[in-house]
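A reminder before we start the practical. When you read a complex entry, don't treat the lines as separate problems. The point of joint prediction is that each chain is placed relative to the others, so the output describes one connected object in space. Small molecules and nucleic acid strands, if listed, are placed in the same frame. In the example below there are three entries. Take a minute to note the order of the lines before looking further.
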Amino acid sequence: MSATTVPTTTTAPTLWVRRPAGAKWAGWLRTVDHKEIGVLYMGMALLFFVFGGLTALTIRVQLAVPENHLVDPAIYDQIFTIHGVTMIFLVAIPVLVGFMNYMVPLMIGARDVAFPRLNALSFWLSFLGGLLVYFSFIAGGGPDAGWFAYPPLSGHTYSTGQGLDYYILGLAVNGAGTIVGAVNIAVTILLMRCPGMSISRLPLFVWMTLVTSFLILAAYPALSAALVMLFVDRHLGAHFFDANAGGDPLIWQHAFWFFGHPEVYIVILPAFGMISEVIPVFSGKPIFGYRFVAASSVAIGFLSMSVWAHHMFAVGMSDAENLFFSGASMLIAVPTGVKVLNWTATMIGGRLRFTTSMLWATGFIATFVMGGLTGVSLAIVPIDWFVTDSYYVVAHMHYVLFGGVVFGVFAGLYYWFPKMTGRLLSERLGKWHFWLTFVGFHMTFLPQHWLGIEGMARRMWTYPASTGWGTLNMLSSIGAGVMTIGTLIFVWNLLVSLRSGQLAGDDPWDAFTLEWTTSSPPVPENYLTVPVATSRRPLWDRKHPDMKDPS
Amino acid sequence: MRPPAEAIGALALIVTAIAFVIFLGVEAALLYSAWRFRASRVPGLAPQITGNRTLEIVWTGIPLLILVVVFVLMTGTMREIGTSVAGGSTPAQMKVLAVGAQWWWEYRYPTSGGDVIVANELHIPVNTPVDVDLETADVVHSFWVPEISGKTDMIPGKTNHLRLYAAHTGTYSGQCAEFCGVEHAWMRITVVADAQGDFDRWLQAQARPRGDASAGAQGEKVFMSNLCVSCHAIRGTDAKGEAGPDLTHVGGRTTLGAGVLTNTPQNMRAWLADPQKYKPGSLMPRVPLSDADLDALVTYLEGLK
Amino acid sequence: MTAAQARPAGRLSHAPLLGMALFIASESIFFMTIVVAFIALRPAGLATAKQELEFTKTLIFSLFLFASSGTMTIAERRRDRDGWVWLVVTGILGLVFLTGQGLEYVRLLSTGISPAAGMFGTTFFTLTGLHGLHVLVGLAAITGLTIASLARRGRVTAVGWETVAWYWHFVDGVWVVVFSVVYIGTLIG
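Here is the predicted structure of the whole assembly.
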């Protein structure tokens, strides 16, 4: 075997990273280690996931029966607003950035990220931003204009409380952290790869992370700019979005979606990347069409910058604008489809091991393909006129964001958890977690397609009994209950496995990539000697010297 | 001409069919591999296949072609139903202005005698393309009656257009589709498609000021001496408020509070006694009235047909 | 392995410079968004702009900022000798520019033009204000570099100097755009 072999962990490992004894809690505040910061990001995501989940449950309880007066509408508005803000900015982004932070340096054979101290700053800004948004509830009421906060509803005339101010401030601070973090990750990938780790050998998770980082750099500033305009409108009496004074509320919509649509790809691409790591390993063969999977990410990245106004087909744009954004949005289905087909082709002819991680990955493809297809229907202008802003969109969006991002993250988590902690998550609990979530998810969101087509608009705090929407809504709410049980099992699994999970060893999955050559959890600077990437699958090469990966 | 919703439905059917085939294909491939290639059935290592360029080109090209076809079909549908901007291939035979406000609707019918103003219940003649101009009095709203139209937003400072076409007489329900504040949910839309004759009679009736109100004279006094008058207009009286719905013919409407209650005397009484109970957050406050005053007010308002 | 080992070449192979380049690209989109909003809302504020803006005075103050890019370059070249002096000169030129902006603000505010007063005030103060804030950040960076270069003479690397310089040139470049859009644009009509 190669010279870079490190001692296998035989005793119970310290959690997460090997750190000197004694330096426990204060260490988390001071740390500039990419692995610890990665764990901090994931912890932040888990914390806010609790709130995001509770708000989701409240929504489903309220909508379970028609004309329900359980939740006051003014509270309901805050609940769905904070649900969206939380899940996008304080759960999806942090958990993915957490994985990027932890895994990217390991996967490219680097000791750390390019700017470790800046990395800590990024995390604390992101976290502080989240706290600021939530502080609104203590200060007298959360933001209540939806996560995309369209003016004039979000302006000072119609949102008189301070909720929107904390939304602005929180997201601006959180966004600054995300931008700085993206600079850091991009520089790390571009400059800190180990010998042999050429661009065409980058693990696909790293590839997608790179594209995501560039998308963050391109998209987030538009949000910051929109927030600044909303802020001066609210506090300096300015008129950017005030039609009575010559302003235009559509400027907000353009700026917000110029950020908001790439944001969807910002969160889905890393999940794509995780799937692209998990599926080959558990199929026992390399990814099918590596170059096409990588290149399609770049295509998605570019296209995603020119599709934002498909969120605005109903605002009365010209035919030319509608057709342009429709065409661009349809086009993005092509590289996305290429990915789905390549993952499927990777499985065909493989030797499939259905670990929990692989179950999530397969469930991801099965679910995401549906979200992708309804996405195409939303790109078609007349269909969009019909279903936009209805529960059809709610369903579509959760198919891509939950069935996509969340399933992908769970695939990644079950896969990398042993690398991060030295212990395996329980496969038995994991399978319960998967199946309950999978069934609960489809039960929750599949019926919502029909609700939307039948005329149920999103963000209604209740609906008339005469509409007959009660049955499907009840079904949807029961599904949410099923998912909750799955989530509780997951949390239980996490707690139990952290303490007493089976010891993993360095390479529990018979994997391919560099991170599995170091110890679990990795030593402080990741590798005892500088690793060498002999191909796209350096670890495969070591295990199969007679049939090395040709890349 | 068919209703826009039907044209959209036809397009959606084609798209759904294509999508369904792709969906089934992918799911079938997944299930097949999960069954055929599970580790227990594959001895030794899997063949190390890294890809196939031809296949990649094929499955990039075919979706692209399908999308081109869908795009062309889409432009056809857009021409047929008229986009929100261009107005469609069939010229409209009628125009109405719809104004969204937190959380109710005002409709203005332009006639030679000036605008006829009604609230919360839009009547249109059946089998007639109707162009609705869409404006808002405050925040962004969106006008959507699923069975007879697509949806178009009402944006401050802008007039949008939407084509309505009902192929059958009857009542169609819709919903404000853009989140517009606390009572977004109870901003229901009611569209009544009448035979042309019925429609003309209805419009003429709506154009008139309130009729003989002698039966409700006591109620009118209550109305005029309370907060009601500051927000609502009743043509033919001194009530000229513009903040809330015009009530000149409120007794003839099918619902109250933009769809929150069906219009019966009992419901009217309950609504007037406490609007916040049925539509919490509504801009209509609870006005303290004695039972006698309430009864008189209900008689008066229900008499305004 | 070697040919495909593509890494950014030249100066961009230095992490701080590559990071700064990416950050500047990101900041450009921030300003682009505000500039696009300015242009979209320009017609509503144009009449006031024509009446109230002082082109010549601002042009003169702008020249100070443009000149500061030159002195920054000199400072970089002489970093091992008296570069810090040129950094101070650069900072002073930046301060003069900011003073000009401040005077413009005071004058406008005293005639009743404020962010709340109309579309011109809204767009003008937001765009130039955001630029001004970036100048302030640049000045802070220059101050930091000056102190560091004096305290650890000769030990601040060339890359360190260059990173600060890039940001300063960027702030300068943004002003070229802002000045063109706001002042020259108004002049042309």
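Discuss with your neighbour: The radius of gyration of chain C is 19 Å. What might explain this?
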